[in-house]
UniProtKB/TrEMBL annotation:
Name used for this protein in its record: Beta-glucosidase
Taxonomic lineage from the root: Bacteria, Thermotogati, Deinococcota, Deinococci, Deinococcales
UniProt xrefs under SUPFAM superfamilies: (Trans)glycosidases
Organism: Deinococcus gobiensis (strain DSM 21396 / JCM 16679 / CGMCC 1.7299 / I-0)
Pfam families (alphabetical): Glyco_hydro_1
GO molecular function, one term: beta-glucosidase activity
Amino acid sequence: MTTLTTPTGPRTAEAASRLTRRDFPQGFTFGVATSSFQIEGATSEDGRGPSIWDTFCRETGRIRDGSNGDVACDHYHRWEEDLDLIASLGVDAYRFSVAWPRIQPTGSGPALTAGLDFYDRLTDGLMARGVEPHVTLYHWDLPQTLQDAGGWVNRDTAHRFAEYAGIVAERLGDRVRSYATLNEPWCSSILSYMIGEHAPGLRDRRLALAAAHGLLLGHGLAVPEIRCHAPGSQVGIVLNLTPQTPRSEAPADVQAARLADGMANRLFLDPLLRGEYPQDVFAAAGDDAPVVEPGDLETIGAACDFMGVNYYSRGVVGEQGSAVPEDAPVTDMGWEVYPQGLTELLVRLKTDYANLPPLMITENGSAYADRLENGAVHDSERVAYLQTHLGALLDAVQAGVDLRGYFAWSLMDNFEWAWGYEKRFGLVYVDYATQERVLKDSALWYQAFLGKR
Ligand code: FCB
């Protein structure tokens, strides 16, 4: 077996630890990110309808710790205190998502005023504190009624999504400078309909590929709706992109990594930026490939102002599947810490896609088993993770990639999907028993990096 050694990036960890925001281009946006289902709680308040995640959490064995999103970080009630927390970090921007079932409880029909009011107050509250709101319209909490009708496999969901996007953009308008349609369509299709790990928990490749197409169609239909109601705002999409490295030079490994790259990355990048689906992925899928109707690819290819990239790790792929290289450093998720993968990924995007819009890193972060001791959380591994990834980002900027911003995932510990509350990604520690928020060392470091301390 070939043992892969993790190459050393061009910037040492020591050098990365000395970076400050002044090393980045002027106007570069720094922020923190969250999503509605992971923090809000209040799942049945003010008319909110059930989402697929509420349903999924109630199915036995789906969530590691048997938990759900009913309370989460209680952000729906504590939003003002949380906005103060965000402002205290010294960030320029906050990326949050709107819960579709708060706006349209069954996914269609008239909008609920209470739901829109909540995000309206959040937007104004951010602006009053000098923090730019960056909105994501779909971070996985699909109204259950739409799932009952087939979810993203049903093309009608794409049309419903565009309608909902228009409603939100009409209410929040240009006060929100940045709208992302979807967060990580790979997760809401492949991970949810084929791997079965996320809601709705199916294991069917044909449905997964149809869902991926439905999501992309929804994105393409939503772009003009948002532009119509918020003409001064930036519109884009957020993809989780994971470089897939072959574990050896053996042709079978190289071929496996190429196909893994197709499913993870090109399945989304190519239709968005090249107006075509990757042929190798469709060929490998055979009869499971989705039906693409005339005009779909033109819709999906709607020009965007930015593309959000979520980067956590890479895959090392061989004929037998994907495995973390021996002795590689890993986070509490078991994901390899591989900052140079971020540089490689961004440079590759610039090389491979002539129509690439400006990029934002919309998520990057790490889970570690943090402990609150004497009022402090010494998360030195997370600090190093952030520093080395910011260093990798700067390497990409210096290689000529048009990068406009960076959002750390996440503002605070939250409901980590199938892992429940077991995994902590926050810069801020949440004591779920009391809902107390405590700045971890990583939050204190980010403040200093941003010049707030
Ligand atoms: C991403 C999700 C985000 C969070 C992080 C750890 O895939 O967008 O909600 O769960 O992973």
